[in-house]
Specification:
Blueprint (H helix, E strand, L loop, with lengths): L2 H9 L3 E2 L7 H31 L5 H27 L10 H17 L9 H33 L3 H30 E2 L2 E2 L1 H25 L4 E2 L10 H10 L1 H31 L5 H27 L1 H20 L6 H37 L4 H29 L11 H28 L5 H18 L1
Antiparallel strand pairs: 1-4, 2-3
């Protein structure tokens, strides 16, 4: 066999085919991807509900129902888009990167439109406008986030490097959170009240920053792992579904991530009301956002050595247990003022930061496990199933958040909320996270099977299986 034939045979199989090795450029590129994603994702998660209740004057229960319906559709859109992506061929710039470039512009435009208030319209118009623009934004978010999330498993096949990508992705999200949660309240609220003009200004600023980050992600990231068409996902959907149902690590990380997303988004939504009404200090939200980011940066250098020593599952479980204990303490200390409340809360943030820092590495592990079970490399499909679970979690959190705020007696027309409503908001912000984090801890410890030893063995077994097929 001549040299050209050898090269052609190699290119027909799954190979790493780049002239530049994995390095800091890839890490920064992947960081910028979630940096761009979370400018609007965190803005929407933290402040869209209060925009709808206080500016569009839509009831909290109606907002919750709208979030529930829209997010359930988003979850379906994730799976449809993931399957679509997996049936596309890799191009000159890879399989996933081009979609980030193509779809990020319409995504940002739709995000800005959510925060446009046309003066003098009826309540019915504002409700319809909110639902349509939110639905469009959520659908377009799938077209960017699915290829971005899937891309991690084709940037590198090394488990340690993937953990690093997960860490940098979380760093990107935290940087966006730092800007939105620290600067956001200062821009969005005037005299402790939501202001429509300020919200639009914030959306424009964050939109410009987001598109800049998406372009940096596109420019800096490199897809190295490619599949030939015959080894791609043109296999039957039945085989894919059978493999997914047999993928026990995927099922349990889906449930854990869904549950975590419910809690995380509920905390973000309720905290706005907690500091606006219970503590009467929206500026303190900036401090919460700052400390949340700082805890991640403190935890970040600890992740790699701790994962190397104990494993991802073990580290994430310990962090969640710490968060559970701290939130329980806060529930039994209802008379704390804002400052000491935030000081204690920071310990809980440090605890669940470890789950956030390694969660995306869990996803690449279950993608590998799917390939080991089925022989199919279906990054987009498996990631979209994972994203589906997170979107369902967002739907549940959005629905529960609105219903819960309404159920405890919150009324946007009241200048001062009743004591019962304030106590209810405090319970939502403390007791609910206590219970939810404890549930996730039990899922990881007793049900998720890929501990450190089994994850390392999976990488070895999968490598041997690929070599035997070449």
């Amino acid at each position: 066999m001549n040299q050209n034939a050898v090269l052609q045979a190699a290119e027909a199989n799954m190979e790493v085919t780049t002239t530049r090795p994995f390095g800091i450029r890839d890490k920064l590129g992947y960081l910028f991807g979630d940096f761009g994603n979370d400018f609007f994702f965190i803005l929407v998660s933290s402040f869209l509900m209060v925009y709808y209740t206080d500016i569009f004057h839509i009831s909290a229960a109606t907002v919750g129902f709208m979030f529930l319906i829209a997010r359930l559709w988003d979850a379906v859109a994730d799976v449809l888009w993931g399957r679509f992506i997996d049936t596309r061929k890799s191009g000159h710039h890879g399989k996933f990167k081009p979609w980030i470039f193509r779809m990020s512009f319409p995504l940002i435009v739709s995000g800005v439109l959510m925060f446009v208030k046309i003066p003098g319209m009826s309540n019915g118009f504002y409700l319809a406008y909110a639902f349509v623009t939110y639905l469009i934004w959520g659908t377009l978010y799938s077209t960017v986030n699915i290829p971005y999330g899937s891309m991690a498993s084709v940037i590198t096949s090394d488990p340690v490097e993937r953990t690093t990508l997960s860490t940098f992705r979380t760093m990107g999200g935290m940087l966006a959170g730092l800007i939105i949660n620290v600067v956001g309240p200062l821009i969005l609220f005037v005299n402790n009240k939501a202001d429509s003009g300020r919200f639009l200004l914030g959306a424009l600023i964050f939109g410009i920053l987001a598109i800049t980050c998406y372009m940096a992600c596109y420019k800096l990231s490199t897809e190295r792992i490619t599949l030939s068409e015959t080894e791609g996902t043109r296999a039957g959907l039945g085989k894919t579904l059978k493999g997914l149902l047999k993928n026990r690590p995927l099922i349990w990380i889906l449930i854990a991530s869904l549950t975590f997303m419910v809690c995380f988004m509920l905390i973000g939504a309720v905290n706005v009301y907690l500091f606006k009404d219970y503590f009467g200090n929206t500026k303190a939200l900036s401090m919460v956002g700052l400390i949340q980011t700082l805890t991640v940066f403190i935890a970040m250098p600890m992740v790699k050595p701790l994962v190397a020593k104990f494993g991802k599952k073990e580290l994430a479980s310990a962090g969640l247990l710490l968060a559970t204990i701290v939130y329980a303490l806060l529930y039994f200390l209802p008379h704390l003022t804002a400052t000491p409340f935030i000081a204690v809360l920071s310990v809980a943030m440090f605890g669940y930061a470890f789950f956030n820092l390694v969660v995306w590495a869990f996803v690449t592990d279950v993608i590998d496990y799917h390939e080991y079970l089925t022989g199919l490399r279906e990054d987009g499909t498996v990631y979209s199933i994972y994203s589906f679970a997170r979107k369902v979690g967002q739907a549940i959190a959005g629905g529960i958040g609105g219903f819960a705020i309404a159920a405890v007696g919150y009324d946007a027309s009241h200048k001062v909320q009743t004591q019962g409503a304030l106590d209810g908001i405090h319970t939502l912000a403390t007791l609910v996270p206590t219970v939810v984090f404890l549930i996730i801890f039990f899922i990881l410890v007793f049900l998720y099977p890929l501990n450190k030893q089994r994850t390392n063995q999976l990488a070895i077994d999968l490598d041997e299986k690929r070599k035997s097929q070449n």
